[in-house]
Amino acid sequence: MPQPVEMLHQQVASTPHAGNVNRSLMAESPLPTPSSSKESRPAKLLEKEEETEPKLLPRRLAIIVTPISTEDPYQGVFLRRLANTIRLVPPPLLWIVVEGQSDSDEVSEVLRKTGIMYRHLVFKENFTDPEAELDHERNVALRHIEQHRLSGIVHFAALSNVYDLGFFDELRQIEVFGTWPMALLSANRNKVTIEGPVCDSSQVIGWHLKRTNSQTDSRPPIHISSFGFNSSILWDPERWGRPSSTQQTSQNSIKFVKQVALEDETKLKGIPPEDCSKIMLWRLNLPVSKSSSGHRIHGRY
């Protein structure tokens, strides 16, 4: 199976430690000079003050994965819109963008100008089914996370997603698996559909289910953008009571993660934990259209 070509970029603005992914990408301000009054205090008094000060825990790395369909003519527009949201999220954050090989360098140009720390992964396989292509792109990203042992909380952000910025603060609170409700907005309908969990505080007690003709699958459907997880489940599954990854798991990582999340719902926590019914993520259901090649394309990523 051909390996994806990795195009890795890390933009840093005036940051002296570019190799540290957990540092801010903004230019660092000079540290204030200690006042003479503090310098004159006895050493024991200063030590006592330091002991009483609360220790701030560092933010977890948010790993945002965005697959891009090669048949989407609006990818540049929506990529810029999503970038404008992500750049407002406090660091540390890593944006992994995956796309098929093409003659256009539009995605690379957009990413270079964002000021966001990112990795741009490109693969050579061709797909006729847009959904199969997007699943492949997600697996490419997860294999990259696994191989490089990137430690953080993973979220799949489609180009059609719209966020409340507070969502990313809640995302970083996930220990193992987290899930949340998502509102689906359609351009052609005057209604909003809710997908995702029904919770009692942070405990998942049910699911908002769409009407389907087939009721053969007993497991509730979970949308790819309505859950997040600790990345160590990919490269250190034994830590979470799972057997080591197999070849089948590495070939379809996204299926493995979904399966683990739904098998052990005790580790699946609703967010925000105080009110899991709060909507912090919306998905735009764009009208179906046809590309120049005749493929049907839409915004349901």
UniProtKB/TrEMBL annotation:
Positions with biased composition (Basic and acidic residues): 38-47
User: Which organism is the protein's source?
Assistant: Salix koriyanagi
Q: What is its main location?
A: Golgi
EC main group: transferase
Q: What is the official name of this protein in its record?
A: Glycosyltransferases
User: What positions are marked as the site Interaction with galactose moiety of substrate glycoprotein?
Assistant: 195
* EC numbers, comma separated: 2.4.-.-
Name the Gene Ontology molecular function terms of this record.
Answer: galactosylgalactosylxylosylprotein 3-beta-glucuronosyltransferase activity; xylosyltransferase activity
Where located?
Golgi apparatus membrane
Keyword match Glycosyltransferase: yes
**What topology does it adopt in the membrane?**
Single-pass type II membrane protein
Q: Which GO terms describe its cellular component?
A: Golgi membrane
| PANTHER family referenced in this protein's UniProt entry, alphabetically | BETA-1,4-XYLOSYLTRANSFERASE IRX9, GALACTOSYLGALACTOSYLXYLOSYLPROTEIN 3-BETA-GLUCURONOSYLTRANSFERASE BETA-1,3-GLUCURONYLTRANSFERASE
**Keywords linked to the UniProt accession:** Cell wall biogenesis/degradation, Glycoprotein, Glycosyltransferase, Golgi apparatus, Membrane, Signal-anchor, Transferase, Transmembrane, Transmembrane helix
Which family does the record claim for this protein? Belongs to the glycosyltransferase 43 family.
